[in-house]
């Protein structure tokens, strides 16, 4: 094989990638793809003339740059710890389709580096066949989209690139395209593995989810909510609305084992709704969610807690696994430690545990759960003597997911399912209207309460699209639409207009936005009723 010089020609992509792999190995240089243009743009020329050439040559323009080319700008806090490897190295190689349009020709080869070439680094990073496998997403784009929210035109841009190869990516991008068309305020991130166009995670928050977390930022709940397929898991962030219901405010579909995931999710959530930064007081995570160390830097006013019941379950499981003798006693002590009313009580039970538990268990306990006791034991809790709603919210959320996600799923189908869940009919289906009716029965005259109960019952079947508009909330149904006032107390429908009592639309809009369904102020006062005709 020869050298890589100007004018060198390659007749297939395979020929070039084999040559380039060997050439890189010989010189111990690491190149990444800065940009690629497919030979045939499917958008402009849907599969014409030379299908075989499109397959063998694949690209009409390829630019490769040294791994150390470029500079990092606008790094988010998530990447702040990573040492910058970008030192503006000028080395690059460019190929273009030759004049006969049947081969790739080297049109630029700057082979000088501004750094020493390291065999150790080469051995660590070099992967054969990476070019061969390249799916056509240029790394300059994947590296830079990873750091910010996607703009709709970037989705089209990526879609154009991936049409050349990756069907799954194409479907995902078309879902996102649809999302931006119906909800321009949606916030989405696609994060690719650095310098390799492999998708690591998708962050997703619709406008509605963002407004929920802005209304109810005080306590947030996060857990791994579902397995999407063999490679990806779904993480969900919930808030709690005024009706005590857990509500989805962000999703992250992430490749298993991706580092700094929790920090990424929380930082992205704050970027999508910056007002919450100083308003979140507590974030409760599942016992399986580790890596919460730096979260308090992103949410400086928040405590991070781990769900106590899940910690106990994990401890009980471990005790069983290690076949601890006196398992019942160990369980009892653990239970007492978790629910200790003071640090002193905790310490007492801990010394009892040291006597009772086998060494292996004790070591596990001290390494895994003792040092972060402040995050899960009652005496250090954010709010003491209060049942934590974490498990209730998460199980309600998982029930909803079950109806929308049946693993294993492709990423596009997963995103579609998650977006479908963001619908009024899904929320009302789980409404316990009896509980609310009882509150009204206790507070107002029977005939009023009966009418309210009837409207609540009808709200349970509401199937509207809800849009926030300048004069309130617009509910579109099949062939009809109603406007509920911004204070969620009045409606444009005939029921409300004639009776001044809260109608199904008022309840549906309250449920959707998380405002209290029980609000005695919604009912006209007896005096107000007499005077209603004068209004
Ligand atoms: Zn270099
Ligand atoms: Zn109405």
UniProtKB/TrEMBL annotation:
InterPro entries: DUF5575_C, DUF5575_N, Znf_SWIM, ZSWIM9, ZSWIM9_RNaseH-like. It comes from Dromaius novaehollandiae (Emu). GO terms for molecular function: zinc ion binding. It holds the Pfam family DUF5575. Residues 482-514 form the SWIM-type domain. Keywords: Metal-binding, Zinc, Zinc-finger. This is Zinc finger SWIM-type containing 9.
């Amino acid at each position: 094989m020869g050298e890589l010089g100007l004018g060198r020609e390659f007749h297939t992509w395979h020929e070039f990638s084999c040559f380039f792999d060997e050439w890189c190995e010989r010189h111990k240089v690491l190149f990444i793809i800065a940009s690629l243009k497919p030979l045939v743009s499917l958008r402009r020329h849907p599969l014409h003339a030379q299908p075989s050439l499109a397959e063998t040559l694949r690209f009409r323009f390829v630019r490769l740059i040294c791994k150390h080319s470029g500079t990092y700008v606008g790094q988010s806090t998530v990447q702040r710890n990573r040492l910058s490897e970008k030192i503006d190295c000028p080395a690059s190689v460019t190929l273009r389709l030759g004049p006969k349009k049947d081969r790739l020709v080297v049109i630029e080869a700057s082979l000088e580096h501004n750094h020493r070439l390291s065999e150790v680094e080469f051995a660590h990073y070099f992967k054969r066949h990476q070019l061969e496998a390249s799916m056509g997403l240029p790394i300059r784009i994947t590296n830079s989209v990873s750091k910010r929210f996607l703009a709709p035109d970037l989705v089209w841009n990526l879609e154009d690139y991936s049409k050349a190869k990756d069907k799954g990516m194409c479907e995902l991008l078309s879902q996102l395209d649809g999302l931006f068309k119906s909800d321009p305020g949606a916030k989405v991130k696609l994060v690719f593995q650095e310098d390799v166009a492999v998708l690591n995670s998708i962050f997703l928050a619709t406008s509605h989810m963002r407004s929920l977390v802005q209304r109810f930022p005080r306590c947030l709940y996060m857990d791994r909510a579902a397995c999407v397929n063999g490679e990806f898991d779904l993480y969900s962030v919930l808030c709690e609305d005024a009706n005590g219901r857990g509500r989805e405010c962000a999703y992250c579909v992430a490749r298993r084992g991706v580092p700094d995931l929790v920090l990424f999710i929380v930082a992205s959530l704050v970027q999508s709704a910056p007002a919450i930064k100083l308003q979140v007081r507590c974030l409760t995570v599942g016992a399986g969610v580790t890596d919460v160390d730096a979260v308090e830097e992103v949410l400086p006013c928040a405590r991070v807690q781990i769900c106590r019941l899940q910690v106990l379950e994990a401890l009980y499981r471990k005790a069983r696994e290690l076949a601890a003798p006196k398992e019942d006693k160990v369980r009892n002590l653990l239970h007492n430690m978790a629910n200790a009313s003071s640090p002193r009580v905790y310490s007492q039970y801990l010394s009892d545990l040291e006597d009772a538990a086998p060494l292996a268990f004790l070591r596990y306990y001290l390494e895994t759960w003792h040092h972060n006791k402040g995050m899960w034991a009652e005496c250090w809790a954010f709010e003491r003597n209060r049942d934590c709603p974490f498990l209730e919210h998460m199980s309600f959320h998982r029930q909803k997911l079950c109806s929308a996600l049946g693993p294993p799923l492709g990423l596009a189908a997963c995103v579609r399912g998650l977006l479908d869940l963001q619908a009024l009919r899904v929320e009302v289906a789980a409404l316990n209207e009896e509980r609310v009716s009882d509150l009204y029965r206790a507070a107002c005259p029977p005939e009023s309460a009966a009418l309210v109960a009837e409207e609540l019952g009808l709200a349970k079947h509401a199937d509207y699209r809800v849009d926030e508009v300048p004069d309130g909330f617009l509910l579109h149904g099949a062939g009809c639409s109603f406007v509920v006032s911004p204070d969620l107390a009045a409606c444009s429908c005939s029921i409300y207009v004639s009776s001044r009592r809260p109608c199904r639309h008022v309840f549906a809009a309250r449920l959707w936005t998380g405002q209290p369904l029980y609000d005695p102020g919604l009912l006209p006062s007896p005096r107000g009723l007499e005077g209603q005709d004068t209004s």
